[in-house]
Amino acid sequence: MRARRIIVVAVLVAGLVTALCWQRRAAVSEPPAIPFPAPAADARQRIEQRLVEAPAFRNDVLFLLAATLRDRCQPAQAGLLARMANRAALPVLAAVSEVTRQDPALDRPIYQYIQHRADGLRCGQPLQMPLGAGRNMQVDIEQYARTFPDSYFDPQRSSEPRDFAGLSLQQRAGNACNSVVYSVLPLGGTDWRCSGLRANARARVRGLCEDELRRQHGGTGGELDMAVGQGMQAAVVAAMAALPDDCR
Fold it and tell me: Cβ contacts of residue 198 below 8 Å, gap of 6+?
């Protein structure tokens, strides 16, 4: 229980810090007249080769591009993708960090690449990500946001996550119960047999959390406290136990 408390607090603090950073970046709602300088040609080539070879790195760069572009084009929703990424405990920047560990000279060029590409895109224009052999993946940013956080692992996903029941990205990112939902049922994995069961379980755990918030505090706003966690612990354990072993 003590470890769970530490994890929940760490996630909430990280989410607040990240959201504030992204909001600060979004203070200017229009792109600069002169795009941010591109990285050197050799660095760009190495970055794009990594994008082709490492899907996890591509997921990270795509997320950073989408968040940067949305903060400019949708200033009223600045920081929402970053906040939801923290709610969902996504491994954002882990793959970027691994690439810069292997090739430290790419540290600054990666962020130059992201900013330069974001500055060069018009609002509503799809992102093109290299896949190798002359192929590109085309990603619609608003579709990516509608289907986030699942779209982090599946950038061309067209259907909204079924466990969200039509809630907007702003509602999803603002729901403190999602920090619990994804700590017990993290995203990832490709087993289609479990995807529906896990989506239903996420909706169930979120409902348990919201019910406990209402019981203790009269509403679902605000962040969680340990009394809420303790109150719903037994019900969450039971909901998880109902899943097949392979899907937990």
Answer: 185, 243, 247
Taking alpha carbons only, the member of 42, 4, 3 closest to residue 229 is 4
Q: What is the pLDDT of residues 84-115, one digit of tens each?
A: 999 999 999 999 999 999 999 999 999 999 99
- Report d(CA 124, CA 140) in Å as an integer: 8
Q: Please, is 155 exposed, middle or buried when counting C-beta atoms within 10 Å of its C-beta (0-12, 13-18, 19+)? A: buried
For the question of whether the overall pTM of this predicted structure is more than 0.85, the answer is no
SS3 88: coil
Backbone angles phi, psi at 122, to 5 degrees: -85, 155
CA distance 234 to 4: 14
Distances (CA, A) of 119 to 25, 58, 61, 66, 79: 13, 19, 15, 11, 17
Task: Show the tokens assigned to 11.
Answer: 């996630």
Residues 161-175 have pLDDT tens digits of 888 878 899 999 999
